[in-house]
């Protein structure tokens, strides 16, 4: 039974989602992060929809959690956190057909991506490109909502504040609601702003005050201070964490602790961060060094970019290491952490094809490192 909350805890309460991050947050990362606590839901990397009905294997590759879904249990991480399936596309009918496949396979909800800034995606009429036309946002959401009728699976949407400017921000949000979205995540920047700070939380507030569905604030929530500021300025109870979920893997758990008790826990120290990196590395120890070490460097880079001084100096010291033994030895130097044998023995060959992840569909990851 859920313990009853004090009025103060009730005011602080709010859900926290893990943002979809193509090429960065996959099922292994979701399992790792949700195991640390604090997260209420996650969203997959996007499945690109053109005009065809995609085969189930495409959905299962992006969302392996579907493999464990059943008629009574929708896709969840091993720690029971629901995993929404994200679609990216423009054609309402094609989106609808594929949303139905996702629902049949066990997606708890279907999310539509209206935020991707990647040039290849926008050129092919998807992601943030649709924010130039609220009518098209409406039709995409409506197409999915209609296709999901009778399945019990809701449609949600994720937008930015606009394409080149914010003039249509509210109109797009209202279009998503009118189309039938049951929740709207708003990344507080336009496509033009890429990932450059700041995220405009007060603009999210202009949307929150006009919509009846839950609006979720997203963008630049890096620590407790940002969390509360984002909530205050946006008027949102719920937030979604992207890069910070990796930069500080315990942030969500710390926020939840504060929500429940009002107590601020100390910042995550380097040993705790390194421990998460090691447990993630053990989960992907089957990958060759040339794949696995860059994945860990990418994660460490997020920790460093968020301003963690220890991550910065460690990153500088080991960023040129290519073999796992030297990389992980440098990562734990000076801590009491021990390395599992799998992190000391190099792997040079890719695993059998069944385990090989297919290459990313397009790269929002590139767009993130090279702001448009
Ligand atoms: C590398 C990378 C990949 C992303 N991939 C997706 C994606 O597949 N779908 C999506 O809706 N947003 C994607 N985003 C946007 C994030 O979900 C989020 O909106 C953005 O990073 C802002 O939140 P943050 O400041 O907490 O990171 C991606 C962002 C990054 C940095």
TrEMBL record:
Q: What is its EC number?
A: 1.3.1.-
- Quote the InterPro entries the UniProt record gives: Aldolase_TIM, DUS-like_FMN-bd, DUS_fam, DusC, tRNA_hU_synthase_CS
Q: Which residues form the DUS-like FMN-binding domain?
A: 18-322
Stretches the record annotates as Disordered: 350-372
Q: Give GO terms: molecular function aspect only.
A: oxidoreductase activity
Kindly name one Pfam family recorded for this protein: Dus
List residue numbers at the site (Interacts with tRNA): 48, 113, 195, 297, 319
The residues responsible for catalysis, as annotated, are 116
Q: Which reaction does it catalyse?
A: 5,6-dihydrouridine(16) in tRNA + NAD(+) = uridine(16) in tRNA + NADH + H(+); 5,6-dihydrouridine(16) in tRNA + NADP(+) = uridine(16) in tRNA + NADPH + H(+)
What this protein needs as a cofactor is:
FMN
Locate the residues binding FMN.
86, 158, 218-220, 242-243
What are the protein's UniProt keywords?
Answer: Flavoprotein, FMN, NADP, Oxidoreductase, RNA-binding, tRNA processing, tRNA-binding
The protein's enzyme class: oxidoreductase
The answer to whether keyword Zinc applies is no
Name the job this protein performs: Catalyzes the synthesis of 5,6-dihydrouridine (D), a modified base found in the D-loop of most tRNAs, via the reduction of the C5-C6 double bond in target uridines. Specifically modifies U16 in tRNAs.
Q: What is this protein called?
A: tRNA-dihydrouridine(16) synthase
The source organism is Cobetia amphilecti
User: Encoded by which gene?
Assistant: dusC
């Amino acid at each position: 039974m859920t313990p009853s909350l004090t009025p103060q805890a009730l005011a602080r309460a709010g859900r926290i989602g893990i943002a979809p991050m193509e090429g960065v947050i996959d099922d292994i990362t979701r399992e790792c992060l949700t195991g640390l606590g604090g997260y209420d839901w996650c969203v997959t990397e996007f499945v690109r929809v053109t005009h065809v009905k995609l085969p189930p294997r495409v959905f299962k590759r992006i969302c392996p959690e579907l493999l464990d879904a059943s008629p009574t249990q929708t896709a969840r991480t091993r720690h029971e956190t629901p995993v929404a399936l994200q679609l990216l596309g423009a054609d309402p009918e094609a989106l609808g057909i594929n949303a139905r496949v996702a629902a049949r396979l066990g997606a708890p909800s279907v999310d539509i991506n209206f935020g991707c800034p990647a040039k290849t995606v926008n050129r092919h009429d998807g992601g943030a490109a649709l924010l130039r036309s609220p009518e098209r946002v409406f039709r995409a959401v409506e197409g999915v909502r209609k296709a999901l009728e009778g399945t019990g699976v809701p449609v949600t949407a994720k937008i930015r504040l606009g394409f080149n400017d914010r003039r249509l921000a509210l109109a797009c949000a209202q279009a998503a609601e009118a189309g039938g979205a049951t929740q709207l995540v708003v990344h507080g920047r336009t496509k033009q702003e890429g990932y450059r700070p700041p995220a405009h939380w007060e603009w999210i507030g202009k949307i929150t005050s006009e919509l009846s569905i839950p609006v979720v604030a997203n963008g630049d929530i890096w620590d407790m201070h940002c969390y509360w500021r984002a909530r205050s300025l946006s008027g949102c109870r719920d937030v979604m964490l992207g890069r910070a979920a990796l930069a500080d893997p315990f942030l969500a758990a710390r926020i939840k602790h504060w929500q429940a008790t009002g107590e601020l826990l100390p910042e995550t120290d380097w040993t705790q961060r390194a421990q998460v990196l090691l447990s993630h590395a053990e989960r992907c120890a089957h990958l060759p060094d040339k794949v696995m070490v860059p994945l860990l460097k990418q994660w460490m880079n997020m920790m460093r970019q968020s301003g963690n001084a220890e991550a910065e100096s460690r990153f500088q010291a080991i960023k040129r290491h290519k073999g796992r033994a030297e990389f992980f030895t440098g990562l734990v130097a000076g801590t009491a952490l021990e390395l599992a044998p799998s992190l000391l023995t190099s792997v040079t060959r890719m695993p059998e094809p069944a385990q090989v992840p297919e290459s990313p569909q397009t790269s929002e990851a590139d767009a993130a490192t090279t702001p448009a």
